Amino acid sequence: MIEQDNSYHITLVPNDKSARLNLGEVWQYRDLVVLLTKRTFTVTYQQTVLGPLWIIINPVLSSLIYMFVFGHIADIGTAGIPQILFYFVSSAVWEIFAFSLTRNSQTFVANAYLFSKVYFPRICVPISNMIVSILKFLIQLLIVAVLLVTFVVRGDVSPMWALYPLLPLLFLQMAVFGMSVGVLISSVTTKYRDLLAVVNVLVNLWMYGSAVVYPISSIPDGVMKTLVKINPVSEMMELIRMIMLGQGEFDLVYYLAGLGITILMFFFSIIIFNRVERTFADTV
Amino acid sequence: MSTVDNKNGNTERKVMIRVSGLKKKYRLGKIGARTLQGAIKEWRSRDKNSDAKAPSAKTNRNKEFYALDGIDLTVYKGETLGILGKNGAGKSTLLKILCRITAPTEGTVDLYGHITSMLEVGTGFHGEMTGRENIYLNGAILGMTKAEIDEKMDDIIAFSGLEEFIDTPVKRYSSGMFVKLGFSVAYHLDSEIVIMDEVLAVGDVEFQKKCINCLLDAANNDIRTVLYVSHNMNTIRQLCKRCIVLDKGKIIFEGDVDQAIAVYLGSEAVMPSEMKYGPEHRSKDYQRMRARDVFSLDSFRLLNRKEPVFPTSGEAEFELAYTAAKEIKNVGFRIQLQYQDGSRIASSLPGNLVDILPGENKIKLTLPLTHLTYGRYTADIVVYQLDAGGIERRIDAVSPGFTFQIESAHDKDDYSKWNQQKMGAIRLLDSKVESLPES
């Protein structure tokens, strides 16, 4: 890595409380991030019959269930968007957030052994998990494209094509927010593992408050609606659907607030994470 | 930044690691409350000081100990430093701090070079991935970029000697292959400082030799600085030029390797002239053995000396007390010697067998110490019965049975010229030389 670098010098000091992001160091380890991402894919789909097809099967199954439960039984509208398209896009976008969150909430616990044996910037692991969530979504986008073309040709949806370049940023925001929450949970749970037990329940509850299985427009004005809109995920979800599918009730103020929360959460969680990583080996 | 201690031209030595006033504190008992419930309980008991319900938790809380208690150390470029110490002396903690796995409690560490930690080899290997894929992953974890790994891939594979298996998932590897691959990756890092914790203990002899030679070469050429922790005195002697001995979180000795080993062993071994045998002298297998109910050695007492210190070619006479449940015929006592570094060097077989009487009795043993040279030895005593079929059945074994020392004999028989490092612990009978007539 280094050519007898004479200027290299680091000082290890007692556990200070200073806030550090250390993102420069992550850049040095960028290949590790890539390899960790690869590893996740290799390991997840090794010894499965269908392999990476599961990435597509899962959201297809859940959108079918949503169609049945929320579309037919509960009869919640989809703001004029064809149900299969609405639910598939929503659940795929939600998965970016949910996967990023749940997977990262285990960071310290799942990697305890590795972390206690060798040093590298620990944040590489959450970042790689986040990339996995985005890559999985990109694969699911193939199905979205097929559905979208079908319905556009039939004239059922009219997407806002001009705003499509914004979508990658929104997907990224979704992933970053999920990662930040997950990383925060993982930092807190090195000491108190209680939270880990409820993460899945929490994520499920969050989904119902995030306009995944219903459009924001279907909620009557009132406290409930405000609560849903305060949730940064709802506004991202609604904006993504509005651009991709042409229908949505988007509120710029709430969205910007959500963006602010995402950015704050990102820095806050990484600072906490970096603080925990320094003494993590003593607490496991 | 002054990375150079001594600016006298040629003799200038670059500091690679400077540790000053390093302390690491741990709490005894449970480390940290694991659940929220625990934290709340703890917080409540702290709140109500008089609360009688949680006094134990409270006292436990306050018990802290220093795994490292003020370490000052400077390591120069190209040095191979051995770190000795009993279990719990703080070796691993020191390495963990240097490797940045955990942070110090007090003091600072300055590192003037990149560090490879080999606290364990093959860290991060995943069984489902092939050897090649694991090289990439492991290399990246240790801080290499993909381009660097690509460049060194062939060398790494060649060094490990696993060409045939490199595209097989490592879950099919033997543990030896696993270690070889791990070491090869770590060895090919370009870091200036290598930290090793007994990783060489695994792998076959040939591979160990290869590793040591490579590290020695690198250290001799001033490329690398090696910090090595081991309980194996032989590798320490081969590899290290300087040693520190840690005890209870402090450096109790720093300097020459042989002296350090002596200090380390001295801090460990005691030489009583009388001792009682208990479970701590027996291996777990023997504690479980049924024969222990039938026969057991109870104590050792030295007869011909006050202290277990003998001249060269001396004799140790001692008595062993035993308890036997019944009469046992044809019993032999074998004495197996270990040199101070733990290597097994010699054994003495019984010249005659005895019959053991039931009850508590004593026997006297005489052990000639001919051929042993200066040093400290421990003797294990193995008691066995020779049954009718000529098969040995162990009925008891104590380790260590006793510890003794052979004095250096300066005057007689050329023992003063005996160099243990080169010549070993045993002196064979002198050879005879005759000049042959010209043919």
Brief characterization of the structure:
The complex is a heterodimer of chains A (284) and B (439). By secondary structure, chain A is mostly helical.
What does this structure look like?
The complex is a heterodimer of chains A (284) and B (439). Chain A has 284 residues and is mainly alpha-helical. Chain A has one domain. Chain A is 69% helix and 1% strand. Chain A has 12 helices and 1 strand. Chain A has helices spanning 23-28, 30-45, 54-73, 83-105, 107-110, 112-115, 124-154, 167-189, 194-208, 223-230, 232-245, 252-283, and one strand spanning 10-12. The longest helix of chain A is centred in the last third of the chain and has 32 residues, at 252-283. The radius of gyration of chain B is 27 Å and the shape is globular. With 439 residues, chain B is α/β, with parallel strands linked by helices. Chain B has helices at 36-47, 55-62, 91-98, 131-141, 146-160, 175-187, 205-220, 233-239, 257-266, 284-288, 420-423, and strands spanning 15-27, 64-76, 80-85, 106-111, 115-118, 193-197, 225-229, 242-247, 250-255, 274-276, 295-302, 309-310, 315-324, 328-339, 344-348, 354-356, 359-368, 375-386, 392-406. Chain B has 11 helices and 19 strands. At the A-B interface, β1, α2 and α12 of A face α1, α3, β4, α4 and α5 of B.
Quickly list its features.
heterodimer, A: 284 residues, mainly alpha, 12 helices, disordered N terminus, B: 439 residues, alpha/beta, six-stranded mixed sheet, 11 helices, 19 strands, globular
Please outline the helices and strands.
The complex is a heterodimer of chains A (284) and B (439).
Chain A: E1 10-12, H1 23-28, H2 30-45, H3 54-73, H4 83-105, H5 107-110, H6 112-115, H7 124-154, H8 167-189, H9 194-208, H10 223-230, H11 232-245, H12 252-283
Helix pairs in contact in A: 2-7, 3-4, 4-7, 4-8, 4-9, 4-11, 7-8, 8-11, 8-12, 11-12
Chain B: E1 15-27, H1 36-47, H2 55-62, E2 64-76, E3 80-85, H3 91-98, E4 106-111, E5 115-118, H4 131-141, H5 146-160, H6 175-187, E6 193-197, H7 205-220, E7 225-229, H8 233-239, E8 242-247, E9 250-255, H9 257-266, E10 274-276, H10 284-288, E11 295-302, E12 309-310, E13 315-324, E14 328-339, E15 344-348, E16 354-356, E17 359-368, E18 375-386, E19 392-406, H11 420-423
Parallel strand pairs in B: 3-7, 3-8, 5-6, 6-7, 12-19
Antiparallel strand pairs in B: 1-2, 1-4, 8-9, 10-11, 11-13, 13-17, 14-15, 14-16, 14-18, 18-19
